[in-house]
Amino acid sequence: MGGIIKTADWQEMTTALEASPLGPLLNNIVRSHRPLQKAGSVPANIPFLAEVPFDKFGIAVATTSGQVYRSGDADVPFSIQSISKVFTLAMALQGDPAGRLWSRVLREPSGTAFNSLVQLEVEHGVPRNPFINAGALVVTDHLMEGTPDAAKQLLRFLTAEAGSSGPFINEEAASSELLGSNRNLALAHFLKDFGNLKQTAQSVVQNYVRQCSIMMTCVELAQAGLFLAREGRGRLGRILSPSDAKRIGSIMLTCGMYDAAGEFAYRVGLPGKSGVGGGILVIVPGVCSICVWSPRLDAKGNSLAGTAALADLSDRTGWSVF
Ligand code: GLU
Questions:
Q1: Over 158-191, what HEC string results?
Q2: What is the pLDDT of residue 258?
Q3: pLDDT at 226 exceeding the cut of 90
Q4: Domain membership flag for residue 246
Q5: Catalytic option among 82, 181, 213, 294
Q6: pLDDT cut 70: percent of the chain above it
Q7: Which atom of ligand 1 is the closest one to the Cα of 184?
Q8: Ligand 1 pocket, 133 CB below 6 A?
Q9: What is the mean pLDDT of residues 288-306?
Q10: Helix (H) or strand (E) holding 15
């Protein structure tokens, strides 16, 4: 489908979805994309992630009409890592009607690795966007001004939106990641030096790492992200204005996949956010929210099999914002 998507088109897509055999399609996606051998890599600085079996693969679709479809390891908890950044941004915008956050972090793709130090130095401590680590540290600092334990606040948000008491902070994984967080600490010290961090570098990184260490399943994440497909309406009421929900989707599209946002937009055509735990959350506005998980990553830090599966799913369903 091409051109501007009108509400009626989305309604047709939603109706078509209800009539379509999505369950068998997801089973087929799992059969085709579950890795048969150990390709790609896992992050060296997070020991916990190295222990996850390479052939885990799950996918879940939560629709705006209230259906949930799942296949493979869709009910196995995994480490959400940077997918947390979508939700912390939503929480930050919720409490910031004047948009104070946007004087501290930009909305441009970075074109560099998610944990790059160089750009932050050159650009005087203002991170390119909230989905690279430096940007997420600023968002965390902003949240900590109101609630010192922003990670707990995030957990409450995710639990409510997922409609499940399953999500939890894996404190042991967080402590072990913290030991290897030299780069994130360096980013935080840079931010502090440029006057763009109010709390101590150590406390912000510690809180950020705990956010990343939240464990959730594909089903829970797809449900938690559904408000972005519903113009900001969550399970229990409005979370964001339609404009802010649109803006988060736009930042996901341009900045959500690290330094591979262009390639992901080309292959999948949907706003997405990945995490180095191997999860990817994708939004089909007006239709559904999708979460796929497969732990092995490509050179840019995105799930190898997860990205391939989403490209396949988007081709086979026609789901795209283009
Ligand atoms: N906790 C990870 C880090 O800060 C998250 C990275 C990611 O998922 O992009 O390095």
A1: HHHHHCCCCCEECHHHHHHHHHCCHHHHHHHHHH
A2: 87
A3: yes
A4: yes
A5: 82
A6: 94
A7: 4
A8: yes
A9: 97
A10: helix 7-19
Is 2 inside any structural domain?
A: no
**Lowest mean pLDDT: which of 17-21, 70-74, 186-190, 267-271?**
17-21
- pLDDT given for residue 96 in this prediction: 86
Q: Which of 78, 133, 208 to mutate to test the pocket of ligand 1 (most atoms within 8 A of CB)?
A: 133
Measured in Å, residue 276 CA sits from the centre of ligand 1 at: 6
**Does the annotation mark 276 as catalytic?**
yes
Residue 239 has a pLDDT of 97
pLDDT at 284 over 60: yes
Model confidence, pTM: 0.93
Sequence-distant contacts of 177-181: CB under 8 A, at least 24 apart = 177/45, 177/46, 177/47, 177/48, 177/209, 177/212, 177/213, 178/205, 178/206, 178/209, 180/44, 180/45, 180/46, 180/47, 181/45, 181/205, 181/209
**Whether pLDDT at 248 is above 70:** yes
Which of 109, 105, 132 is CA-nearest to residue 197?
A: 105
- The CATH number of whichever domain residue 173 belongs to comes to 3.40.710.10
Measured from the CA of 83, which atom of ligand 1 is nearest? 8
Note down the domain range covering 99.
7-317
CA torsion, points 158, 162, 168, 170, in degrees to nearest 10? Answer: -80
Residue 171 resides in a domain = yes
Residue 322 falls inside a structural domain: no
Give the span between the Cα atoms of 47 and 308, in whole angstroms. Answer: 25
Q: Residue 81: CB within 6 Å of ligand 1?
A: yes
Confidence category of residue 4, pLDDT binned at 50, 70, 90: very low
The residue type found at 236 is: L
Q: How many domains does the chain have?
A: 1
pLDDT at res. 282? 98
